[in-house]
Input
Amino acid sequence: MDNIHLTRSPSSSPPPPPLILPLELFPLVLSHLQSPAHLRSASLVSRAFNRFANEILYQHCWVKPWEKGAEAKLPLLFDTLGRVPELSKLVRKLEIRSYPPPINLPPSLASTTLLTLLSLPNITSLSWTRDRSLSTALLSVISSCMPNLVELELNAHSGGVFEPEGLLKIEGLKRLGLIMPDRGVVGLLGRWFEILKEKGGGLERLSIIAQVSSSSFLLLEPGKGFSDYLTQSVSVFALNAQSSPLVTDELLIEAAPSLSNLTHLSLTSLTKVSTASVLLLLVTASLPSENPRSSYYPRGITHLSLEHLPRVSLSELQVASPSLSAPSFTYLSLTYPTPSSEPSDELLISNILAPHEKTLQTLHLSTPIPKFPSTHFILPSFGLPNLTLLSLPSPIFLKLDLDLPSLLPNLKWLFLPVQGHLWSRLLEVVGSGSWEQGLRTVHVVSPHAGAEGRGAWEPGMAELGEMAKKGKGLKQVGFRTRCYDVHRFEEIDTDYWSKNVGKTKERVELVRFDTELGGRVPDVFSLGRFLG
Output
């Protein structure tokens, strides 16, 4: 057979020159890709794309129990980081929420984990939250091989699996979150806070969540999604949650001088913490700094979360604390009423919010009482012009004859329980012209059990779709544990009998929330997590 030679015709045009992008544009181009899968594809385009895509991919690495294939992802991630130093040096944040306890830990994974943590010199943030999954060896590596670590979220239930004294060697933290601290960890918190103050200037963010029985922390079966995980975890947590008596007033009062630089404080389910210690922390953080370099910056706690603290009286705090009467809060999360509160004071919440009407951006109110009168959550008539997130335990604000968009002009996230007879009112509010482009998320949370009896009304896909159409700027809608991203499409109306035939129309599609798009979780389930 004769060889066939292909030659270019003289009239044919030359191939286009290769596309050359300035290096400054690569991060801008890649910033539009949210999915790790899309970023991995982009990393195969060229060496330049590979460099910049990997910087985004490995800056924040995570393993979470609701992800598909979480059990398989964990050893693969650690193996890759342990073998490829060019990638491990890119990691700034590592979030491990699914890790086997020592009794179920394969030896190969144990050694791989140690090698990986030894090779993360630039990491600044670490979350390790599975109960009884931390070991003394891991804690030793964290304290000795992560010099840039400033943020640590830790399951502090040592339970004989790690030595709490190892925490004292972690000296440079600015942000600390402790889950289930047991007696061994609580006993050295005072000393640890002192060391952090002396070595690194002291904590700026502190979150303590009370002890929970170990059966509350379940490893999700492979293949289940986020909603399954959340439903399972919330129901079990509700049955097994235990308020902790270990963290006391005496501990916080003694530690207050070491916590003078706090800007974020979150305390949850601490039965031995009263108004006195919370007040002292608020006052101490608002005092002038001893460091002259810090005197130019405003001081005080700006993010405050007090959840299920039965001995804390909000009315006493409101009267006594300068922080609660000074315009400083941007984030406020409160459980009301508590046994120390006066339920008859219907204006307490309004009185607390009044000084912060210009600064408050997030307001989250919850109630431990199933049939607590909704009138106690009256929205302040003065408005909150900078509020972007509102979460209420009651639909009372839908019943008010107020121009809500003018009171809350910048609201972006709205979470509240809604009964069927108020659904049309919610649609009216969501579709308001002032909120058309600003309101991003509306999530209808479940009313308290017994609020409407069994078989209570709940919105279906048709109702959620109608809400998405009403709110032109909505990106996410949901009910209870069901979350949907809102996708919008422009289409040509081909209905011959329609008066708009030939014109473009909008089609709205609700897509079940996909955790594979990134490390984020639905907005409604991120409430109260301001540590990061």
Remarks:
- Residues 202 and 481 are 38 Å apart (CA to CA).
- The first strand starts at residue 60 and ends at 63.
- Confidence is low (pLDDT under 50) at residues 1-6, 212-241, 449-454, 527-532.
